[in-house]
């Protein structure tokens, strides 16, 4: 099976060879009893990572889930499986609390986002290849529109406080995680660890509100269908200043790339609650932020980071998204 689209022949051959080699090793490991679970889990994760690099997000998701079934003690693979079970399977509906207003995008204007350009040289290769799958004639200027900040809050303050309270309630039992993201560690709790009603509310909020808005904001050449967007990961993050008593979170997040087509940051508290902070975009030098409910969307492969918080605590909901391809699940 060929996985790559639009890459150079050399890159295609090298990655396809690596995929074939690892697939062969996995086939052998599943039939050999002497292969340890740790060794097999490493192969599943390497294969999934190669597929992510190739832009085959749905196939990567399938590989991670298969690896989770085979390796039940590997935390990384189990995380992928929990995200899938929480957000990609239509479970029974769950009523949310009455104090959360329904999300309705019918009255929102199409230009709700302020759009910023990235320099042509900073446009991720992944974005260019996605556009080339639709047409060989790619308008680079159109593809540069990859940074979006809502001009007004999209989620209500009540909804934002609801998410913060849910995170604090869950971490009082489970604690905060600080070592899941090796390249750019955050102090966070996965959304699937929140109460079921919160998970259902977040799923509905994504499908009915944010996915349609994001699909409209990004370049048409990327051909993003909001009905095919899928959550790759979602977690509540806190940033805390150094001088805060009983500090929990990290002060900042170092610049990095996400393994996603689209990444999304939602502010959960107002900027008056802290000094500093914000989403830093390396290629433009922009620092994007807003009060509770403000949504920031950007191409995942754009280098970005969390600007240092100098006072107080900054809360955000972070999500990464991939695109589902028909027939891959």
From TrEMBL:
One of its GO terms (molecular function) is oxidoreductase activity. InterPro entries: Oxoglu/Fe-dep_dioxygenase_dom, TPR_rpt. The keyword Kinase does not apply. The keyword Amino-acid biosynthesis does not apply. Residues 230-323 form the Fe2OG dioxygenase domain. Keywords: Iron, Metal-binding, Oxidoreductase, TPR repeat. TPR repeats lie at residues 41-74. Belongs to the iron/ascorbate-dependent oxidoreductase family. This is Fe2OG dioxygenase domain-containing protein.
